[in-house]
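Support case: adenosine-5'-diphosphate complex. Customer-provided input:
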Amino acid sequence: MAHSPLHRVAVYTGVFDPVHFGHLDVIQRGSRLFERLVVGVGINPDKKSFFTLDERVQLVRDVTASIANVEVRPFADLAVRFVREAGARIMLRGLRTLSDMENEFSMSLTNSTLDPEIETVFLMASEVYSHLSSTLIRQIAALHGELDKFVPPKIKSAMIQRLQQHPDTG
Ligand code: ADP
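Agent response - structure generated as follows:
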């Protein structure tokens, strides 16, 4: 069966505050599965972010620069609309734990109610990264813990710099 060009593009959305090795693992694996992977950096309306949207977009661009078929864009719209605008019909998500399942399951059902043509594809987190979350990493950074195992050097230095400028961030 020939695949339409729409099925060669996938969109991976997240807040990426900050982007960490778990996200990068999904991005790398997704970039091997699809011809093009668009990473959508979004906003969480419920909480104040550590990095601004522009900073998060730039940081994700910096750490994915070596992957030729990955493109990083900001978005503030409904995720399903962003997926369509990117010329895709596939949403890529990462699944860490059973507790992720519940959330991701309802999000995926809601998205397919909003736009039945959009399919969500899940990648199971690699074992080594399955405990990682941006929330934990922000907490470790605020307490001056070791970040090398969780984020690339570029993200580590950006976090340290932010905490030096604004110690109340976190
Ligand atoms: P976080 O929960 O880390 O703040 P995001 O909103 O930025 O996450 O997550 C974007 C996507 O990445 C979601 O599909 C989420 O399940 C997935 N993800 C987050 N952390 C990991 C990880 N350690 N391994 C695999 N996928 C992950």
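The first strand starts at residue 9 and ends at 14.

Case will auto-close in a few days if no follow-up is received.
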